[in-house]
Amino acid sequence: MKQFKRHLVTSALPYANGPVHIGHLAGVYIPSDIYTRYLRLRGEDVIHVCGTDEHGVPITIKAKQEGVTPQDIVDKYHKIIGDSFKGLGISFDIFSRTTTPTHYATASEFFKKLHDAGKFVEQTSEQYYDEEAKQFLADRYIMGTCPHCGNDRAYGDQCEKCGTSLNSTDLIDPKSMISGSKPVMKETKHWYLPLNDYQKDLEKWILTDHKEWKSNVYGQCKSWFDLGLQPRAVSRDLDWGIPVPVEGGEGKVLYVWFDAPIGYISATKDLTPDWEKYWKSEDTKMVHFIGKDNIVFHCIVFPSMLMADGSYILPENVPANEFLNLEGDKISTSRNWAVWLHEYLEEFPGKEDVLRYVLCANAPETKDNDFTWKDFQTRNNSELVAIFGNFVNRALVLTQKYFDNKVPAAGALTDFDRETLEEMPKIKKAVEDYIEVYRFRDALKEAMNLARLGNKYLADTEPWKVAKTDMERVATILNVALQITANLAIVFEPFLPFSTEKLLKMLNTSEFGWDKLGNTDLLAVGHELGKAELLFEKIEDSVIDAQLKKLEDTKLANALKEYKAEPQKEEAQFDDFMKMDIRVGTIKACEKVAKTKKLLKLTVDTGIDTRTIVSGIAEHFEPEQLLGKQACFLVNLAPREIKGITSNGMILMAQDADGKLRLVQPNEAVKPGSQVG
């Protein structure tokens, strides 16, 4: 394997038009933090860079919606995102932004160098133009009807309802989101990076030289190559961004996907004057952590830019994760369907590591995965509390009880003692092997196996029983248990930094370093331990119910917001309406129809008679809710046999925007049989 002197780890720049949610964390930031913390524990030369991506159309749209400037938006979310990362213990060496003077200068110089070397091609094309606003429209500034699903609020680059990628020219009846007018096509000139010039080198670099890459990354790159790479625009007609720094660039800015990855370079420049050794030395290992939606930019576009420059190294790996869903539904910023990090930190104080653990244990490394609050609770209570926390607490409390809180000396080891201790180096090797190939979920599972090992050891040796007859044996058992505990403080540090810091305090010792993992003499005989505390605490049902209620409220708010009345039915004549005999009736009895989920049997006083009506409303009403209620009924509907019951009529219902049914009824009591018309 190739040997490296240093590591450069980058995490995808979060977009500064909203907070960070659990999908971002599971896809990018928790994996990158685990990897970086692991390398630091090993004593490697490593820097971890990130920052907010602060240019592009969505930010200008957000600014217009809120009546503020784009700078106000990015300032607001840079702070929220940065504070959230810090609160979760994401250990960047620098968290920068793409609006810094260093970044503006770096991106401008990068473009100008490629421009002056003739690396771009200039092309004129027709794009949508808003004649009222007097500006060209980026795809996100155009809205129309999706040709695939009929959604009349599809953007010019994607329909968020059906997920189809679009060109703005695909939209039916397009409108400008600035003025609301219909845009026209107008010629404009832009600079393009001819990706096709670099396809052969990219194919060799990825398909031949890096077959070890994750299959989703490798496969997506191959599909792009199979289609044939095309020139890609690196400028846009906008006023928010880095101005194109050459003649003819007036009114144009660098395309956000050209400027954003350069943010990794500018952040490194602000971090260290030795930035070039991390970006231009072949003995540096560069790793990009991203989500799968960014694969093309980090594996094809940005590497093409670096190849065009000629002085930079290429990433050694780009371990992209798949997507994380929430309670069976796709996470959506626009629909507020997410668990936001800054809200989690407020609502779950002291439980940062619980979220880190669950998102890593359930990481979408090979396929899309689902976060549920019940799984969150189960993993905390059944794994962190019942396995890891339980073992640590027993080991420390028993030492306090029997040996005055000091590490006892081990006597002669039994075969079981030796077999238990011999498992630790094996677990260390397994954790290392998994982390080195970016399989953090499996690495965490191995780390938890060390806690399982300790739990089993105490359960099998039962020192609380042995204490009645053989305190020398108890001393040996607890020495072994404490050495396992100290090893847990090493193996979990990349995954659960807050808990391991707490554990080190309980052990009354400082950080050991990764090379000590697997050692059986980490705590010296006679070493005084700190105060034992619970490492984790149970999460009650009421806490989870509150989070589920919060999501239900979001779902209801979305339904109300997105509600659109059904189109008018075909025209009816007055005589058609007059055929319907609609009357107010009183429900005298109500019961569920046996062996069905949806049917209720109603006994109704229609004023004409008392009759039976069967209706499929059982999922919306309990029988007792309807007793004595008045409602409107169609009484001259032809009888129909339903589950062996003859139904004579139909109860009228209104379906609300949230899908719930409501009775159609008079606003005050009337005589049964009163006609509606």
Topology (elements, then pairings):
Blueprint: E1 6-11, H1 22-41, E2 46-52, H2 57-66, H3 70-87, E3 94-97, H4 101-116, E4 121-130, E5 135-136, E6 142-145, E7 154-155, E8 172-176, E9 184-194, H5 199-208, H6 215-227, E10 231-233, E11 235-236, E12 253-254, H7 256-271, H8 275-280, E13 284-289, H9 295-309, E14 324-326, E15 329-330, H10 341-347, H11 352-361, E16 369-371, H12 373-403, H13 415-436, H14 440-461, H15 463-466, H16 471-491, H17 497-507, H18 541-562, H19 574-578, E17 582-592, E18 600-605, E19 610-615, H20 623-626, E20 630-634, E21 640-642, E22 645-647, E23 650-651, E24 653-655, E25 661-663, E26 675-676
Parallel strand pairs: 1-2, 1-13, 2-3, 14-16
Antiparallel strand pairs: 4-5, 4-9, 6-7, 6-8, 9-10, 11-12, 14-15, 17-18, 17-20, 17-26, 18-19, 20-23, 21-22, 24-25
Q: How would you describe this structure to a colleague?
A:
It is a single chain. With 677 residues, the chain is of the alpha+beta class. It has 4 domains: 6-108 and 257-330, 3-Layer(aba) Sandwich (Rossmann fold), CATH 3.40.50.620; 115-236, Beta Complex (Methionyl-trna Synthetase, domain 2), CATH 2.170.220; 372-516, Isoleucyl-tRNA Synthetase, Domain 1, CATH 1.10.730; 576-676, Beta Barrel (OB fold (Dihydrolipoamide Acetyltransferase, E2P)), CATH 2.40.50. Helix content is 42%, strand content 17%. Strands 17, 18, 19, 20, 23 and 26 form a 6-stranded antiparallel β-sheet that branches. A 4-stranded parallel β-sheet has the order 3-2-1-13, with helices on both faces. Strand 24 (653-655) and strand 25 form a beta hairpin. The protein starts with 5 loop residues before the first strand and ends with a strand. The model has no long low-confidence stretch (mean pLDDT 95).
